[in-house]
């Protein structure tokens, strides 16, 4: 797959697509992103590229994982240092138009309808910014011998970056699909992507849907990918 800082050879049977936090709380008015003072409309342009990545990954029979940032209704898994920021009426757990902000089970916590997970696709609820922190993501990936992650979602410099850094330290190769990520700060998005690919790919690789989708389509049209589980039967 064409990427920065250099092309990456990918075994799709050992690759997962991870879609990070494409939740109404970040993408729609009245959620967590808006409560932090952001213009949430800036994230909308990541939806279609994420959708194309999902469709391509499904067609290639890749492992697909979705994540959601959020907390238990009693906030017992939310560090006070995270909750006690900003005015009380706009904090995590406060009531908003999509239900309580960043709380599991509320409408705002849902993934946007265009990117709804299929029943077989794990949805990981995470209390932090990184998808490995206090989740079983590493276990799911190791049990399928995953070595490469195709990463998309929001926001580029927060949950995508944190997850890529965590994954990189655990030995996974991360290929971040830049146009399928988004930030409330266009300059952070640009620099965030550059930081990943700089220094010879210090945290991973960066590419685009335009470059990656044809490779996934070729794979879907040729060899069925199968899974490690099937190999072992
Ligand atoms: N605020 C912000 O940019 N992001 C987050 O709080 N979480 C995620 O990135 N998902």
| Rg, Cα atoms, Å | 17 Å
Query: H/E series, N to C?
Result: EHHHEHEEEHEHEHEHH
Unreliable spans are: 227-233
Report on the biggest sheet.
Answer: 6 strands, parallel
Q: Share of helix among residues?
A: 25-40%
The overall pLDDT, averaged over residues, is 95
The number of distinct β-strands equals 8
**Which strand order do you get reading across the main beta sheet?**
5-2-1-6-7-8
- The number of helices is 9
> Distance between termini?
31 Å
3D structure, described in words:
The protein is α/β, with parallel strands linked by helices. It contains nine helices and eight strands. The strands form two sheets. A six-stranded parallel sheet has the order 5-2-1-6-7-8, sandwiched between helices. The protein has a two-stranded antiparallel sheet with strand order 3-4. Bound molecules: tricarbonodiimidic diamide.
Structure described in brief:
The protein is an alpha/beta fold. The chain has 9 helices and 8 strands.
Notable traits:
binds tricarbonodiimidic diamide, 233 residues, alpha/beta, two-stranded antiparallel sheet, 8 strands
